[in-house]
């Protein structure tokens, strides 16, 4: 594993070490504040620092496994330790010595974890068309991230606007693809070590925006009436079956037309709703406008609707029903 | 005393003769009687019968659902139209109602025609139905409505003449195979033509048919359908002699060896003579005006 970039994790362990100094028997034991600066790789570089203790010339840090077996003791003449160590949970204790290398007592042992590094992400980590596919009602979102020292796998969590987790999975590689419906999402990525230690989660810098699609306007099919004496003159009207106007629309597999029919008297501006249009309920691509028999003005308003998609703009068509004789 | 009696008797006789001579139906037969004249004439009316018939029918008219008071008030207004008013009211009202007009407007139209004579109502009904129905001119409602009023309520000539002309022209447009005009254009031509009906005593249809056939069938004319459409109302604007003068002039120019003239000038001459078919005494000739300048 290579370390693409160093990021700093500050781990405060101020109460970790209490070192009663041999050479400073009369003085109170110093209390160094231990901070984890960084770690990388399966064996990650670790940098620890604590506050300088006046008179201290030697610092020792002992790492034990959870059973108490000493794994390593790091020595330094400064208050900063730099070393490489495996990601994991340890028991740590420390002590300081004076110029004569006379050490005080070990501090109280404290459990201490070395975490994997968070995954590297940037604005290019998300790829999406940003618009749903009307057939699937989802859009593919591809996530990519860089290596993270100490990480064996990554936990991906996708949260919606209400901060609810809509997808959660663990990925071994450095990419993940998900199909998401329209919405605004936040992606949270956590590096996981082989033994289950998690890094601090990192949130992708930009939100994932997936927009819905507006359905196309329904297209009303008209019938052309050709002038018997001049075929170039054509008028259009709704097809008619037994004097009843019929609404036919160009088929659209995604949606069903919905709408209503209104009636208005001549010399009036008041439109009264006289019927509803719902192709799904009608169960046919042809809707007989039975309520358009009374002579007068009619206005048809239709639009397309489908679950998960934005409804189309509406289409209106006005027509007149005439008496057949007086 | 004698003088006074004579004067009273004279006045009475005068009124009776006025009533007898100028009843509305007879007035319709008077060429170019004005509407204002028509309204000023008095005549006896069966006003109660008209009121009763209207009132009872209004009460049974479910769509209007009028109470007795409103029905009586409306019946009273209708009965002012004198004999036949009730019938005229309901004929116009029913037609408008059947078309899909608001009931208040249908009543308004009914009231207008209740106050007119039967001929004007007949014009309205005949013209409206032919203008509006699908199997004839199939115009939009507003056009049909306006034209129907123009040729009935607002028409200043003899109502029966214009109605007959219109009906015959509709038949000519819809039935004749010779027309060669799209229905709408034929309708427009008809409407332009009936504007000139008052100039043709007894109507213009016969002259029109003859003239149209001459223009379309005589190959020497060589004019298109569109040109015919424009030319016919232009000629008919100059009265009953204009088509005849135009035709005679064309025939003379194109057949006689006494005049050498090309087709364009033959047409110009014929148009000029058609224009001169309606004498306007005192009017200056265009050539004279040009010469003076």
Which shape of chain B, going by the Cα principal axes?
elongated
Low-confidence stretches of chain A: 1-41
Q: From N to C, what is the helix and strand string of chain B?
A: HHHHHHHHHHHHHHHH
Counted by DSSP, the helix tally of chain A is 1
How many beta strands in the DSSP annotation of chain A?
24
Give the helix proportion of chain A (percent range). under 10%
Q: Which structural class fits the helix and strand makeup of chain A?
A: mainly beta
Q: Gap between N and C termini of chain A, in Å?
A: 93 Å
Terminal CA distance of chain B reads: 69 Å
What's the order of the H and E elements of chain A?
A: EEEEEEEEEEEEEEEEEEEEEHEEE
Instruction: Please state the second-level CATH architecture of the largest domain in chain A.
Output: Sandwich
Question: In total, how many domains does the architecture of chain A comprise?
Answer: 3
How would you sum up this structure, described in words?
The complex is a heterodimer of chains A (326) and B (293). Chain A is mainly beta and 326 residues long. Chain A folds into three domains: 35-114, Immunoglobulins (Immunoglobulin-like), CATH 2.60.40; 123-210, Immunoglobulin-like (Sandwich), CATH 2.60.40; 223-321, Immunoglobulin-like, CATH 2.60.40.10. Helices cover 1% and strands 44% of the residues of chain A. Chain A has one helix spanning 279-282; strands at 35-36, 43-49, 58-64, 70-76, 80-86, 88-97, 110-114, 126-128, 139-144, 153-159, 165-171, 175-180, 183-192, 202-203, 208-210, 223-227, 230-237, 240-241, 244-248, 256-264, 272-278, 286-288, 296-305, 315-321. In chain A, the strands form seven sheets. In chain A, strands 10, 11, 13, 14 and 15 form a five-stranded antiparallel β-sheet that branches. A four-stranded antiparallel β-sheet of chain A has the order 4-3-6-7, with no helix packed on it. Mean pLDDT of chain A is 83; it is low at 1-41. By secondary structure, chain B is mainly alpha-helical. Chain B has a domain at 45-115. In chain B, 67% of the residues lie in helices and 0% in strands. Chain B is elongated, with a radius of gyration of 25 Å. Mean pLDDT of chain B is 83; it is low at 1-37. Classes of the chains: A mainly beta (326), B mainly alpha (293). The interface between A and B is medium-sized, with 20 and 24 residues.
């Amino acid at each position: 594993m290579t370390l693409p970039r160093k990021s700093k994790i500050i781990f405060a362990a101020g109460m970790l070490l209490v070192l009663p100094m041999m050479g400073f028997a009369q003085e109170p034991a110093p209390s160094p504040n231990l901070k984890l600066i960084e770690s990388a790789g399966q064996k990650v570089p670790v940098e620890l620092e604590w506050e300088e203790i006046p008179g201290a010339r030697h610092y020792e840090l002992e790492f034990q496994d959870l059973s108490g077996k000493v794994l390593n003791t790091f020595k330094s003449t400064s208050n900063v330790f730099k070393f490489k160590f495996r990601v994991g949970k340890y028991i740590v204790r420390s002590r300081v010595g004076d110029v004569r290398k006379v050490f005080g007592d070990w501090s109280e042992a404290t459990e201490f974890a070395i975490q994997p590094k968070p995954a590297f992400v940037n604005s290019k980590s998300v790829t999406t068309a940003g618009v749903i596919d009307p057939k699937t009602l989802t859009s593919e979102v591809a996530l990519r991230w860089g290596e993270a020292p100490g990480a064996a796998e990554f936990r991906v969590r996708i949260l919606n606007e209400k901060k609810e987790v809509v997808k959660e999975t663990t990925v071994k590689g450095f990419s993940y693809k998900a199909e998401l419906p329209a919405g605004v999402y936040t992606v949270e990525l956590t590096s996981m070590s082989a033994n289950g230690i998690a890094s601090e989660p990192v949130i992708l810098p930009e939100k994932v925006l997936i927009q819905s699609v507006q359905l196309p306007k329904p297209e009303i099919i008209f019938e052309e009436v050709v002038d018997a004496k001049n075929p170039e003159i054509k008028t259009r009207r709704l097809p008619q079956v037994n004097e009843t106007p019929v609404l036919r629309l160009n088929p659209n597999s995604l949606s069903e037309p919905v709408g209503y029919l209104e009636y208005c008297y001549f010399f009036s501006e008041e439109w009264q709703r006289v019927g509803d249009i719902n192709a799904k309920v009608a169960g046919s691509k042809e809707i007989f406008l039975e309520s358009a028999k009374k002579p007068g003005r009619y206005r048809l308003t239709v639009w397309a609707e489908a679950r998960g998609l934005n409804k189309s703009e509406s289409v209106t068509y006005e027509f007149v029903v005439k008496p057949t004789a007086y | 005393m004698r003088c006074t009696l004579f004067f009273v008797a004279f006045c009475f006789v005068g009124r009776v003769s006025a009533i007898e001579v100028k009843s509305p139906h007879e007035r319709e037969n008077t060429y170019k009687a004005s509407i204002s004249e028509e309204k000023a004439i008095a005549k006896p009316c069966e006003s109660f019968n008209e009121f009763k018939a209207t009132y009872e029918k209004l009460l049974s008219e479910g769509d209007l659902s009028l109470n007795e008071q409103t029905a009586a008030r409306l019946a009273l207004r209708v009965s002012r139209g004198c004999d036949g008013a009730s019938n005229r009211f309901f004929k116009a009202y029913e037609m408008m109602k059947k078309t899909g007009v608001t009931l208040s407007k249908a009543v308004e139209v009914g009231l207008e025609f209740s106050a007119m004579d039967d001929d004007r109502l007949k014009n309205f009904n005949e013209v409206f139905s032919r203008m509006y129905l699908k199997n004839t001119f199939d115009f939009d409602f507003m056009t049909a409505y306006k034209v129907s009023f123009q040729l009935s309520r607002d028409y200043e000539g003899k109502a029966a003449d214009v109605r007959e002309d219109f009906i015959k022209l509709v038949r000519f447009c819809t039935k004749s195979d010779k027309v060669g005009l799209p229905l709408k254009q034929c309708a427009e031509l008809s409407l332009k033509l009936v504007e000139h009906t008052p100039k043709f005593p007894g109507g213009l249809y016969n002259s029109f048919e003859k003239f149209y056939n001459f223009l379309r069938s005589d190959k020497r004319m060589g004019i298109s359908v569109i040109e015919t459409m424009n030319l016919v109302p232009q000629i008919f604007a100059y009265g009953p002699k204009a088509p005849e003068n135009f035709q005679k002039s064309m025939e003379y120019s194109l057949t006689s060896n006494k005049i050498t003239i090309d087709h364009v000038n033959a047409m110009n001459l014929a148009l000029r003579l058609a224009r001169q078919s309606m004498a306007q005494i005192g009017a200056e000739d265009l050539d004279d005006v040009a010469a003076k300048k």
